[in-house]
Amino acid sequence: MKLSIAPFTTVLLSTVGAFSTPRAFSSSRNANPIYATTEDTADTTKLTNDVSKLKRVLAREYATFFSPMETQYYAKDVSFIDPMTSLSGVESYQNNVDMLASRTLLGKLLFSDAGIVLHNVEGGEIQEDGSIGEIITLWTLRLTAKILPWKPTARFSGASVYKVVPDSSSSVGVSIRGQTDYWDSINIAPNSGGEYQKVDTMTAVGDFLDQLSPGGFQAQTAAPELPYQLLRRGDGYEVRSYPGYTAVKLPYSRRDEGFGSLGAFTKGMSPLSPSLMDVQKDDISDKYMMWPLTFTQPGESEPPVPADAMEKAGDGQWRTMRVVTVPSKVVAVREFSDVSMEPVVRKADRELREFLDRDGLKPVDDSDEFVRFAQYDAIFSMGRRRGEVWIDLADGGHPW
Q1: Entry pTM
Q2: 184-198: average pLDDT
């Protein structure tokens, strides 16, 4: 059966763009903050406060998925540009956001579970000439195309660059005159340190449509997945933020034996996926397997430690088991679907490191001493498998 997805393209062309931004902005974009004289200190202070309020408004709009959209902060002829489309005017922007969020009749038919997460708001410094530097947001957007039988979820991450001007005629003192969006998956220029560049529209359309394709028969997942926040859907990789978690860890020689031992140890404990394996560069050092058990919930400073796991670990038949606590971290991930044989895993690890270097992301210093890979599927399950290599990113080695 041939199913047209043209309505999806039309809708997203006019909505997703309202959420993206570039890194094609240089570090000097907000340079030279104003050094006010006595006579204009009051005006500068007011403008600084107005910009600070605007940044809080943007954070509030993202948190509520623009319900309501605080239109007093937008110029009537404000422009919105993203990789697939462009819009003009506040009403056009708001109508498309409402459709994406299923707040219109057409939106209820096409989409579900739409949401956007704001990771950062920066910029907006006052310049020497009294202008306002660009305000930049980093975000992740998702939506489910419920009109398709397999209900695929498309995800986009990127940045939005806001052009803001002082506006004495406005009750809020400033106006957003333009917004340009960039997607991490297609707009990051290779070997630029993470700066964004424009791409042709068909590249963006292809990136969107690829996410709507059926995924095929998937292997059975071994356990519920450790939760994470997607920070970047990049070209060939993802970046995720994981909460702190506790896990049980043991050295292993054969993976099936490691699975068997951990399965017996965690009986009744409801372990999580993925299983994480660390393999050293040499063939002499121990290999380690780890299963997550609990994770830090909102409001908690650290994950709970299961008492039954602590009682058993290190004693008797469980003498090689250890319960460990892993702190929260930012992790780069590359997925592969082949069986997790050593050549496959090491190749994926090399490719991921090349992508990180290409896009200006920095691994932790000792990450090249071993390969860490993840397995999500039940060990003898059938179907398309999901494996990943993981590399921890250094503090300050990423923009989040």
Answers
A1: 0.88
A2: 96
